[in-house]
Amino acid sequence: MISVSVVVAVLVTIGLYSVVSYVGHRKSRNVLKLEIDRCQSLEKQLIDKQNFLRTIIQTEPECVKLLSSDGLVMDINPAGASLVDAGSTDELLGTCIYNVVVDEDKGQYRSLTERVFRGESGTLEFRIVSLKGHIRWMETHAVPMRDSNENIIALLGITRDITARKRAESDAQRHQCELARVCRMITVNEMATTLAHELNQPLCAIISYMESIKNLLERGEGVAFSSLTEISGKAACQAERAGKIIQRIRDFANTRESGMLSSHINILIQDVINICMAEARQRGVTVSMQFADDLPLVLADPIQIQQVVLNLMRNAIESMNDLRVEFGKLVVSTRLNQGGMVEVSVEDNGCGLSDTEALRVFTPFFTTKPHGMGMGLSISRTIVEAHGGHLCLESNLLRRGSTARFTLPIFDEALV
């Protein structure tokens, strides 16, 4: 038989186990409850942050959108819908963003999307045609959006309307071109006397040759046909010379810009030298050229670059006007510099620049000429910088005079 003590021991053990189990169960329930409360708190914080972020995006004045790899709109805020004249964001969800991009810019937008889904980021200026037919300029900044495993799941783009900025840039460029044209007209007007003298030489020669032909014909018999042919040929050459002078002036004074063209800088400069040579001779200045051979083409507006060269050459000639030496010397040279850009320099042995003048020489309306406007160098620098180059003017260190230099990027077909 089982003794009473054994039974009591068993009952006590069972009781203790029950107590321990009960205490452990209550403790587990408390731990579980705490964990549930913590998870619920984290979930609430996450929801609050999502709502906060959603509120920011929805009220953001610029377009915020998510695009798939094929350009489908996954999400977009009201500002984005407003940019394309949509009534609501629902009208755009699931549609292709390329539908509103103009045909000329679709390729660039697709290229940007492909780069983003390869892990890159980028910026693009492009045009859209809104749902109501309005053409607008846009600028978008795009970055990849990743999930927790670092997989790219969407393109995140922030886009703003830059139509007003583009219009202002266009107006400024148009005003700059108009100002440059006016300065060209002023330059031609200032050179009118010299150009008239240059044109007068072939015209006088033509008159002289025609008088000779007339005298020969008045003699009647015995006039050699070969003599008439020779004299008339000389007259024709002078007429051609006069025509070229007029054509150069007309081309330079053209009211329309020629646009950006692949150009050989040496040819552009040679045409300017032909225009400026008469004034140089009249002022006793010798002009020499040091052109580098086999220079690459530059992408430039020929009329504007010729305006820069003419302005620099005339400034140099005028700086030598009061020289007390027998001859003024002007050297125009071209080369390919170490930076891979075509460099043009105009060097003179004139009066040079003072330190004060060097600091202010490109300031609009600053001039050292008695009747100058002070706009030539300022416009020239603007033109060169618009071409992606740089213009500087400095005194020669080891000899008298100054040197103006400007650079132009070489022509790259890939950028056209």
How many runs of DSSP E, i.e. beta strands? 12
Strand proportion, as a percent range, falls in: 15-25%
Termini gap: 110 Å
Q: Main beta sheet: strand number and arrangement?
A: 5 strands, antiparallel
- Give me the Rg, rounded: 40 Å
Oligomer: single chain
Average pLDDT number: 78
**Globular, elongated, flat, extended or rod-shaped: what is the shape?**
elongated
Identify low-pLDDT runs: none
Strand sequence of the main sheet, in spatial order?
Answer: 2-1-5-4-3
Strand-and-helix sequence, N→C?
HEEHHEEEHHHEHEEHEEHHEE
Structural class, from secondary structure content? alpha+beta
The number of helical segments is 10
What percent of residues adopt helix (DSSP H or I)? Answer: 40-55%
Your description of this structure?
With 416 residues, the chain is of the alpha+beta class. The chain is 51% helix and 19% strand. It has 10 helices and 12 strands. The chain has helices spanning 4-59, 78-83, 103-116, 163-190, 192-218, 225-252, 265-282, 302-319, 355-360, 376-386; strands at residues 63-67, 73-76, 122-129, 135-146, 152-161, 261-263, 285-290, 298-300, 328-336, 342-348, 391-395, 402-408. The chain has a 5-stranded antiparallel β-sheet with strand order 2-1-5-4-3, with helices on both faces. It has a 5-stranded mixed β-sheet with strand order 7-9-10-12-11. A two-stranded antiparallel sheet has the order 6-8. It is elongated and about 170 Å long. The protein starts with a helix and ends in an 8-residue tail after the last strand.
